[in-house]
Structure formats: structure tokens, C-alpha cells
Amino acid sequence: METATPVQRRVVRPRADALRNRERIVAAAREMFVEFGPEVPFDEIARRAGVGNATVYRNFADRDALAREVVCSVTDRTSEWVEAALAEGGDAFEALSGFVHFAADERIGALCPMLCESFDQNHPDLVAARDRITVLVEQLMGRAREAGQLRPDVEFGDLMVAVSQLTRPLPGTACQGIDRFVHRHLQLFLDGMRAPARSELPGVAATVEDMRRP
């Protein structure tokens, strides 16, 4: 009895134009979430991306799926930047400062409000992206701490809370207007993180667990 030859399953890969459309949708959604918040209508996102509404819904079944993709794409790009900085070596505190300014340009602070109670924070894609960036940033901080450049009483949560707050547009202000001050204020914060510490910090350090606690 002859054994049947296994049938090779044909893997259908997205066309190049379909991938470009998806990338345009995610880029447009990122811009509009920053400008107007997560409730911006899909048809406005489609118009900004230069595609039809059907193309948006074909790629993303609902708002959560699109928002999750935006957050994951921003987080992944930032992780890739940190990986490159770690591989390059060099001045540890300069690498940490570079991450903070890169994260600001990626609008992490403006996107943080999207991670609200209605957002599935335990989705595998989001958890994987979050765990990856956490490990990498802690490595950056560890290098700076070992080099004696980072004050020892600062933890991951302290850094991320500050980055989120200092890059988030103030209520009633235009996102474009706040851009003039973001990097200036971040640099002031970074100077305060340098060792030796000039003051004793009140309270306790914010940990990774604190960041993930609802």
C-alpha cells in the first residue's frame, strides 16, 4: 500500500499593495489618535490614509484591533531602537537619554490614555510587546546604573511615568503646540536622574508591578 504524498499547503501572502495600505492605515490612526483621541471615526482615519472605509474594516475588525496595532507598532519600533543602542554600546546614560527622546517622538505619552479599562491589556500581542520593551529598558537603566551615571533610587516605573506624563498633551492644548517644550522638559527630567543625586526622593520607587497594576 502506497503512502499518499502529503499535500503542501499553499501559504497566501498579502500583496505588496495590501501591506502598504495596512501600514498607511496604522500610520494615519497613530496621528489621529494623538490629535483627537481614540474615538476618532474610522472614515476620518480612512480619509487620512487615502483608502476606503472597507479597506480599514478588512484589515481591522473593530476599534480595539486598530488601537492595539497602533500601540504595538509604536512599542516595537521603540524596542528596535533600544536593541540597536544596546548593541552599539557607548555611553550608557546617553543611550538612556536617547531612548527617552525617541519615545517622545513616537508619541508614547499621547497613546498611553488608550490603554484604558475597556482596552484588552492582556491580549497576547500587547503583552509580548510590553514585556519586550520592559526588559530592554531595564537593561538600559542597568547599564547606566552600573556605570555610576544613574542615581540608584530610580526604577523602571519612575522613568516610564515621567515619560508618559511629560509627553502627554495638556488638556485644552494643541498637540503641535506642546512639541516645542517636550524635549526641553524631558532633558530637565533626565538631568535630575543623573548620579550623584542632589536630593532624597520622597515616597517609594515605582516598579514594573506598579505600572501593570490596575
Offer a few descriptive terms.
mainly alpha, 10 helices, 0% strand, elongated
Describe this structure in words.
With 214 residues, this protein is mainly alpha-helical. Helices cover 64% and strands 0% of the residues. The protein is built from 10 helices and no strands. The protein has helices spanning 16-36, 42-49, 53-59, 63-88, 92-105, 108-111, 124-146, 156-166, 175-193, 208-212. Helix 1 crosses helix 2 (42-49). The longest helix is centred in the middle third of the chain and has 26 residues, at 63-88. The protein starts with 15 loop residues before the first helix and ends with a helix. The relative contact order is 0.10. The mean pLDDT is 82.
Summary, kept brief:
This protein has 214 residues and is mostly helical. It has ten helices and no strands.
